[in-house]
Design brief:
Cofactor: heme
Bound molecules: protoporphyrin IX containing FE
InterPro entries: Catalase, Catalase_core, Catalase_sf, Catalase_SrpA-type_pred, TAT_signal
Order of helices and strands: HHHEEEEHHHEEEHEEEH
Largest sheet: 10 strands, antiparallel
Radius of gyration: 20 Å
Number of strands: 10
Family: Belongs to the catalase family.
Function: Has an organic peroxide-dependent peroxidase activity.
EC number: 1.11.1.-
Helix content: 25-40%
Shape: globular
Length: about 350
Amino acid sequence: MMDRRTLLRALVVGGAGALSVGGFLFTENIIGPYRLTARAIADRFEEVNGTFRGFRRNHAKGVAVRGYFESNGTGAELSTASVFRGGKYRLSGRFSLSGGNPYAADAADSVRGLGLCIQLPGDNQWRLAMINLPVFLDPTPQDFYDRMLAFAPDAATGKPDPRIMSDYLATHPGTVAAMAIAKAAPVAPTFTTTTFNGLNAFEMTNAHGVKVPVRWKLVPETTTKAPAVDRGPHYLFDRLIADIAQRPRRWAMVIVVGVPGVDRTDDATIPWPDGRKTVTVGTVVLTDITTETADNVRDLNFDPLVLPDGIAPSDDPLLSARSAAYAESFRRRTGEAGGRGAVEAGGRA
Ligand code: HEM
């Protein structure tokens, strides 16, 4: 059995392998004084949303997509990652809405998610999970965990208790500020016109050994202000299915380069100043869409710490918590029957 110091050293020097060790330690609650575990997070989702067996504990409603990332080669100035060599790389993805109920009706204010798993040479992968909010609402995993309960619907009224919410916000000014930013951001009428943000900071290293903090986003090639007309229970997904059936849909992948020592890398609630350097490194092209099943994305974990060499995590505490919580959610659903998505998309992804 490794002692605590050896375990910590393994985390520091172990490169990619250390990431999974880090997730494990988070899951098993070995490293103190931090007491929140991935199991507790998954339990909290079930407590607040109910348990829908076979489905993700968050972002439960979704569809599978397929396509490719067309790299234009310019990312090489930032990172040695093979994904930034010019060329096309196959990918699997999943569009989702936040919440634990896979049968919930689509709503404009649900958080939209896009997970991608890009296949790279040598069996490498880059997995990304992005949302449409411009900033995250909680600086730490503990805050996320606490807010979930504070904002949960009250059993008697079916609505969150305003007093509990305001007591929570009174002691969480970072969340108040982030909510104001999120509220001011326009919500696109469709998935295909939505910008998806990675939010957490990462670190890229180029061939000269230069390291820079980065955040990334996917910016849609098509934009529209036209509101959706049909408000059926799957209106956002139905429109997405129709859009991709009509023609492949494209998003530019934009890397925002932070200023080392100036831009916060450990707090996803704080936006970086406008005007930071950006590098458009290629295009995500989605060609196929289909119903979610165990054969496509149900049994795929969009763990944000599966990174190619040349991209590393930052010091943002959300990252290891996300990795561990996604693994726990994956462990639960893949041990359960069911999980065929509520959105029937047909197709062959
Ligand atoms: C402490 C913070 C967070 C926690 C505890 C958390 C938790 C979770 C969990 C448990 C899932 C289900 C994962 C699965 O079963 O595969 C999930 C899904 C997801 N989360 Fe988070 N999350 C956090 C922050 C974020 C942030 C900052 C983003 C975006 C930048 C994000 C984007 C997503 C997306 C896109 C999905 C759906 C992935 C899929 O389709 O499989 N989450 N989250």
